[in-house]
Amino acid sequence: MSHAPTAIDASVVIDRVRVRVTPREVEPPQVSERVRPARPHAADHRLVVHELRIDTEAPLGELEARRLGERVTDALGEQLTALQARRVDAICAGRSRGGRIQVRALRAVLRGADTGQPDVHAIALALAAAVERSMTS
Asked: For a Cys-Cys bond, which of 40, 124, 125, 130 suits 76, CB 3.0-4.6 Å?
């Protein structure tokens, strides 16, 4: 049996992105239930978002909605990668057990005057902060 260190997989995965142009009246929470797998692999410390949902009041066409989804996904990926770097440091230092984190759905609701040209970096910061809060609760 080898006790050599194994490479740590701390990647960020966003499985699906959905942009809805007409949001519901009731706002759901930003992060739905977090789920951990029953038998994680020792080196699996990925952060997996199964669905990123973006609801907006802006009158976007299909192409504009797709571009908005891509821009938010890219910015969120950068923020979650930075979060993962902090997690890996904590895991390697023995301050955290780590393990894969799965987020069933991550939601952003864009309302008001700025929905036509939203600040995707601010959206990504808010979503990443919501993920980080859910990890510590």
From this structure: 124
Torsion region of 37: left, alpha or beta (phi above 0 gives left; psi -120 to 50 gives alpha): beta
Please, what is the end-to-end C-alpha distance for the chain in angstroms? 36
74 Cβ neighbours under 8 A, 6+ residues apart: 120
DSSP letter for 93, please. T
3-state secondary structure 4-31: CCCCCECCEEECCEEEECCCCCCCCCCE
Residues with Cβ < 8 Å from 52, sequence gap 6 or more? 14, 16, 17, 18, 69, 72, 73, 76, 105, 106, 107, 108, 127
